[in-house]
Amino acid sequence: MIAAVIPEFGRMKVREVDDPQLSGSTDVIVKVAAAGVCRTDLETMSGGLVPAYGQPIFPYVAGHETTGWVEAVGSEVSVVAPGDPVLLHPLITCGLCDGCRAGRDMYCSNSRFPGVDATTWGGFAEYMLTGERAVVPLPGDADLVELAGFSDAGLTAYHAVKRLVPYLNPNGTVAVIGVGGVGHFAVQLLREMTSCTVIALDVDSARAQLGEQLGAHASFHGPIETLLESVLELTNGGVDAVMDCASGGSQSVTPLDFVRKGGTVSLVGGGASLNVDTLSAVVKEITIVTNLVGTYTELQELIGMQRSGLRSLHTTFPLSDTTEALHALTTGSVAGRAVLVP
């Protein structure tokens, strides 16, 4: 098969590799229809995830937002059959540990994270090996390109908003930093799931304006220092919560500076180190909430929200143009998600 392979840190090359093979009774091989491109993939390629997942076994195939059609199944698979359209949860979980039995898939102590965990190949390929617990069956007429971004970007935003809701007042104000692949979902979901005023913030004017098009009540663009000034002026002292979807911050400004006393900072996805002035955080009694992906059930719920108008903005690239897709993501020239199509 053809795949976008990381042969060493700093490079990704499209070339032929061996097809995946069934090895376990609950394995599922998927013919890839679409694979979203995430900043995590850039971190995988650069070596930024080594502290979390270790040194990759090269060659390595990234990609963790995948849709497609079932190609083959193991002997005990009963949920899907060859030809079925599916969306893949980012994690392959065991179903037996405490995390799985509690329904919290991202806490699985035996999970594999295709395209991220340095050993399990991901979806930047014509075919991908996954497990039965990761496949979400879809209707026959599902738009598999549209749904690719739901797998991780949408799921992460949905999980984060659900975790944030208990900290919000009905008349509160929430700022979203970064209206990109995850942030454009976050803006929509905050409008759908809360009655709060939503402010979209981005370094890029077009993406900030996109936030308003997706439902934000206001938007600002510019460097993080300018964004902070605008928010503090608009809100007379800070928002009730901020969702950082872009690892926003600088040496002088952090997401914690955007919230008022008793506010909440939701960190959506990993990124640069966050410098916390603990004395200031304690005096203001700021709550920091971190988020990792979401559950299988939440992914099912999110798919249902597409029927009520939830949008997954995307630009498609052939798998052969993976380098161009990565460049578009790096430069911020794509709205929503870049999606690879084999």
Please explain how this structure is put together.
The protein is an alpha/beta fold. It folds into 2 domains: 2-152 and 294-341, Alpha-Beta Complex (Quinone Oxidoreductase, Chain A, domain 1); 155-291, NAD(P)-binding Rossmann-like Domain (Rossmann fold), CATH 3.40.50.720. It contains 11 helices and 16 strands. The protein has helices at residues 39-46, 50-53, 98-101, 144-147, 153-164, 183-193, 205-213, 224-235, 278-283, 296-305, 322-331; strands spanning 2-6, 13-16, 27-37, 60-61, 66-73, 85-88, 127-131, 135-137, 173-177, 197-202, 218-221, 239-244, 259-268, 287-291, 314-318, 337-341. The strands form 3 sheets. Strands 3, 5, 6, 7, 8, 15 and 16 form a 7-stranded mixed beta sheet that branches. A 6-stranded parallel beta sheet has the order 11-10-9-12-13-14, with helices on both faces. Strands 2-1-4 form a 3-stranded antiparallel beta sheet, with no helix packed on it. α5 (153-164) packs across α6 (183-193). The longest helix has 12 residues, at 153-164. The radius of gyration is 20 Å and the shape is globular. The N and C termini lie close together (10 Å). The model has no long low-confidence stretch (mean pLDDT 95). Its EC number is 1.1.1.1. Its cofactor is Zn(2+). One of its GO terms (molecular function) is zinc ion binding. This is alcohol dehydrogenase. It catalyses: a secondary alcohol + NAD(+) = a ketone + NADH + H(+); a primary alcohol + NAD(+) = an aldehyde + NADH + H(+).
